[in-house]
Design goal:
This protein has 133 residues and is α+β, with helices and mostly antiparallel strands. It has one domain: Sulfate adenylyltransferase (Roll). Helix content is 33%, strand content 29%. It has four helices and five strands; from the N terminus they run βαβαββααβ. The radius of gyration is 14 Å and the shape is globular. The two termini are 21 Å apart.
């Protein structure tokens, strides 16, 4: 049986993406988020529970395979403190999450010709590592 998977780096790669991949490998980061508007702009489907992803470093080296366990669409201003904690970034609190993700999502809105929207939908994913090389 052939399983479908995607291969990607957090935040499109770079130093931040590598740092986030490291948090996954340490078991600290078990969730992620993306602006729904980017899926609309790119005409892509949102991830589905049960799907697999190969997590890459900026140099395209695979560090692990994750399986998405849960996906939800939530307005930015209603993302929970629990989800912020599971993302494992910074001090893991909701204020930090909102500040960092507003900055990260603003270019997605600009690409769509819009201003960032606190009520805009966010794709929230929870995942687990299923393979470590």
């Amino acid at each position: 049986m052939d399983a479908h998977y995607d291969a990607w780096a957090f935040c499109g790669g770079g130093e931040v993406g590598d740092r986030l991949a490291g948090l996954v490998m340490k078991g600290i980061k078990t969730a992620t988020a993306s602006a729904y508007i980017s899926y609309q702009t790119e005409n892509e489907d949102i991830p589905k529970a049960g799907s697999y992803s190969v997590i890459l470093l900026d140099n395209n080296e695979a560090v692990c395979i994750i399986q998405t366990t849960d996906v939800s669409l939530v307005p930015f201003n209603q993302v929970s403190a629990e989800h912020a904690y599971l993302e494992g970034e910074g001090d893991r609190d909701l204020a930090y999450w909102r500040r960092v993700h507003k900055a990260a999502f603003t270019p997605d809105y600009q690409e769509a010709g819009k201003e960032f929207d606190e009520n805009g939908l966010v794709v929230l994913e929870r995942f687990q590592i299923v393979y470590r090389p």
